[in-house]
Design goal:
The chain is mainly α and 232 residues long. The chain has a domain at 89-227. The chain is built from six helices and three strands, in the order ααααααβββ. It has helices at residues 12-37, 40-43, 55-64, 69-120, 136-139, 146-159; strands spanning 200-202, 210-213, 226-227. Strands 1-2-3 form a three-stranded antiparallel beta sheet.
């Protein structure tokens, strides 16, 4: 017994519907393939093509986002300029602060000498003459120069003893901070300025004392000195 399967014959009305559906399905896939692979700017020259991340485009995007050597050098140069300006301003602030401190300490030493004079009718005396600005050895405020010798005599007279960590044996006219003394444990220290150099001192006991700081200079630049007398 054989069973024969035949395709049912559609009516003319159903044939039209089926043909229309097949045509619509074919057009849908055709338009999808065209949309996927077509190049829009070739079809429409005035239209800007949309950006797509194809492999070549990814490499181009990565290359465009990198910095060039010229840009890096420009950034480094700008950072260096800004750092220089910042360090220069910080250095100027430190120098100004040190100068202000030295002026205050010179005034305090002068006031202490006046109190000493009020009791003894004489200023702390030194036998050293004023340094010669033309001599580099005289203007260098090192411990072994006239600065150190005069500074030790001034310290002993105003502090009441020859060592910072010892109690005074006579009246104390000046109470310095540890940073203002060359040594807190050794004998015969001297007063130092904010730059670490010995303060200059000169007096014959009768005339008002001359007290000054070389403001960190060691080459006789007297115009930069911070002094107890008015500079012309």
């Amino acid at each position: 017994m054989f069973i024969t399967m035949t395709t049912p014959t559609l009516s003319p009305f159903h044939q039209k519907i089926f043909a229309h559906a097949k045509s619509a399905k074919r057009n849908r896939f055709s338009s999808f393939s065209i949309f996927k692979f077509r190049i829009p700017h070739l079809e429409f020259p005035n239209q800007i093509p949309p950006f797509r991340l194809y492999p070549d485009s990814v490499g181009a995007l990565r290359e465009q986002s990198a910095f060039t050597l010229v840009e890096l050098l420009a950034v480094i140069t700008i950072i260096g300029i800004l750092a220089g300006l910042t360090l220069g301003a910080a250095g100027a602030v430190r120098r100004h602060g040190a100068s202000s401190t030295a002026k205050a300490e010179v005034a305090a030493l002068q006031a202490a000498c006046d109190r000493y004079y009020a009791d003894y009718n004489s200023y702390p005396t030194t036998t050293n003459s004023m340094p010669d600005p033309s001599s580099s050895s005289d203007v260098n405020p090192s411990p072994g120069s006239t600065y150190g010798t005069a500074g030790k005599a001034l310290f002993n007279s105003l502090f009441g003893t020859n060592q910072y960590n010892l109690p005074p044996s006579t009246k104390r006219y000046f109470e310095p901070k540890p940073a203002m003394v060359s040594s807190a444990t050794q004998a015969d220290p001297y007063f130092i300025d904010p730059w670490g150099y010995a303060y200059g001192y000169n007096s014959n006991g009768t005339n008002a004392p001359l007290i000054w700081s070389t403001a960190g200079t060691t080459k006789g630049e007297t115009n930069k000195w911070i002094t107890s007398w008015p500079k012309l």
